[in-house]
């Protein structure tokens, strides 16, 4: 049932720029593709999707996440710490406690949270691969995504060198040789990667950070390796001022400039965060088409600052929206991310800092652009029908003169009446078919209790 007519919407945000950002009327979907837009009459026997009282948007695209962190929320030791000590006290202290069930439950929590906020595509940066595990993290993540029907990109992380702050009181971070890492990526590409413009599955090469996780001589090789496989490159960069301090001290250049010399910029690369950028770095990113996964809420939670996303977008750069891992953003849903982007840039730079339609574009077309999925991200004829229906019947939306802006400007928990991936319904009447939230809650309680108990026995650090 991937053919239907979406009718009665309050309005449509298309994800397109300028005047085309809004549309009105109906959307015809045939065999999972948008075939007509406008004032359309139902054909005999055509399935009707009732969008009355709803704003329809492209399915939202989250371009940077760490699903394993969905069972590491609100860890007390990390609640009031900035990035580096938070990394040490939370993900890097708990990574070895994530067993098969913990990763599955975490993925399910995170994906469900995202789907119920309008997401239809998720890119997950997973960076703990170790012989300690008796399971295959890549396979677990793809299985959980497939089970829920969401598009999924695995950003295969990892490190060839451990970070400097690893102490002897921690289980050492897993590292791989460069050849073992690239061999593992090749295997994941062979098993899971689809290069099609509307792929359901993608693999991206994503060493955890270029600065801290790879030896400098491996950077060019890493970039060439990814391009030789026809896959994209991703990493964390300049999440706070510590990155620039490190590369200036070690290599005499700011991070983006330094990476420019190592073939790490281009329209097949995007970085998470990019909070701390010089004017020159913003220009370099824009000129090369290198993308940003803007994570306003996680950056706020860790006190890292506010990324110059509007400035990059104003230069024609590729900006996408992301939530980042839930251990540093306990509201890891796309509705919160939209509202955070809307409010934080205005708080910092005034009411003209960013327009509502532009934020929706980052969360949709921008995401499709950085992931290299041109078949999705906008509501336009010929695109795949990845759609989200935001129900506007909640009191928080009532009384709005321009109701189409509600999904961005009102914040709070989104009410997704339905969402579709290539015309296939993945949220139905506000629920995810086949997912029992009661069972998921019980599993979360069980997994968190087990992690806490194992952490107490040794392994995780106190504040
Ligand atoms: Zn991250």
Q: What oligomeric state best describes the polypeptide chains here?
A: single chain
Q: On the 0-100 scale, what is the average pLDDT?
A: 96
**Ligands (ions, cofactors included):** zinc ion
Rg (C-alpha, Å): 21 Å
Distance between the termini: 52 Å
* CATH architectural name of the largest domain: Alpha-Beta Barrel
Please state roughly what percent of the residues sit in beta strands, choosing from under 5%, 5-15%, 15-25%, 25-35%, 35-45% or over 45%: 15-25%
Weakly predicted, low-confidence segments: none
What is the approximate shape?
A: globular
Percent of residues in helices comes to 25-40%
What's the arrangement of strands in the largest beta sheet? 3-2-7-16-17-18
GO molecular function, one term: hydrolase activity, acting on carbon-nitrogen (but not peptide) bonds
InterPro entries: Amidohydro-rel, Metal-dep_hydrolase_composite, Metal_Hydrolase, MTA/SAH_deaminase
Protein name: Amidohydrolase
Domain Amidohydrolase-related: 55-406
Description:
This protein is an alpha/beta fold and 463 residues long. The chain folds into two domains: 105 residues, Urease, subunit C, domain 1; 312 residues, Metal-dependent hydrolases (TIM Barrel, Alpha-Beta Barrel), CATH 3.20.20.140. It is 35% helix and 19% strand. The strands form four sheets. A six-stranded mixed β-sheet has the order 3-2-7-16-17-18, covered by helices on one side. Strands 5-4-1-6 form a four-stranded mixed β-sheet, with no helix packed on it. Strands 8-9-10-11 form a four-stranded parallel β-sheet. A hairpin with a 2-residue loop joins strand 4 and strand 5. Helix 13 crosses helix 14. The protein starts with a strand and ends in a 7-residue tail after the last helix. The chain binds zinc ion (ZN). The site of zinc ion has 7 residues, from loops.
């Amino acid at each position: 049932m991937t053919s239907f007519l979406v009718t009665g919407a309050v309005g449509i945000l298309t994800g397109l720029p300028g005047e085309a950002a809004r549309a009105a009327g109906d959307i015809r979907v045939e065999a999972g593709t948008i075939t007509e837009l406008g004032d359309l009459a139902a054909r005999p026997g055509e399935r009707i999707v009732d969008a009355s009282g709803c704003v329809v948007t492209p399915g939202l695209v989250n371009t940077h996440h760490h699903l394993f962190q969905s069972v590491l929320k609100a860890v007390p030791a990390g609640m009031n710490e900035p990035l580096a000590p938070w990394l040490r006290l939370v993900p890097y202290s708990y990574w070895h406690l994530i067993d098969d069930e913990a990763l599955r439950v975490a993925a399910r929590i995170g994906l469900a949270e995202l789907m119920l906020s309008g997401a239809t595509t998720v890119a997950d940066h997973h960076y703990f691969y170790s012989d300690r595990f008796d399971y295959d993290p890549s396979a677990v993540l793809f299985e959980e995504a497939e089970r829920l029907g969401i598009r999924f990109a695995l950003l295969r992380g990892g490190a060839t060198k451990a970070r400097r702050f690893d102490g002897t009181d921690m289980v050492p971070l897993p590292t791989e040789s460069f050849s073992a890492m690239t061999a593992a990526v090749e295997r994941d590409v062979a098993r899971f990667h689809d290069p099609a413009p509307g792929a359901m599955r993608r693999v991206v090469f994503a060493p955890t950070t270029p600065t801290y996780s790879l030896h400098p001589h491996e950077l060019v090789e890493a970039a060439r390796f990814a391009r030789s496989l026809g896959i994209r490159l991703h990493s964390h960069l300049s999440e706070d001022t510590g990155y620039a301090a490190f590369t200036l001290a070690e290599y005499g250049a700011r991070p983006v400039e330094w990476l420019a010399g190592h073939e790490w910029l281009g329209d097949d690369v995007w970085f998470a965060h990019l909070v701390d950028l010089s004017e020159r770095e913003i220009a370099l990113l824009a000129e090369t088409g290198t993308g940003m996964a803007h994570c306003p809420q996680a950056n706020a939670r860790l006190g890292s600052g506010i990324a110059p996303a509007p400035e990059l977008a104003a230069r024609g750069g590729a900006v996408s929206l992301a939530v980042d891992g839930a251990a540093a953003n306990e509201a890891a849903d796309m509705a919160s991310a939209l509202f955070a982007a809307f409010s934080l840039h205005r708080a910092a730079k005034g009411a003209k800092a960013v327009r509502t339609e532009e934020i929706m574009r980052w969360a949709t077309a921008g995401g499709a652009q950085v992931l290299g999925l041109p078949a999705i991200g906008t509501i336009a004829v010929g695109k795949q029908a990845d759609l989200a229906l935001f129900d506007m019947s909640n009191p928080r939306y009532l009384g709005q003169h321009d109701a189409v802006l509600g999904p961005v400007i009102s914040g709070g928990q989104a009410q997704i009446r339905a969402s579709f991936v290539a015309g296939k319904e993945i949220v139905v009447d506000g629920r995810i078919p086949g997912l029992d939230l009661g069972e998921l809650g019980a599993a979360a309680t069980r997994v968190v209790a087990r992690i806490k108990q194992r952490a107490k026995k040794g392994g995780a650090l106190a504040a």
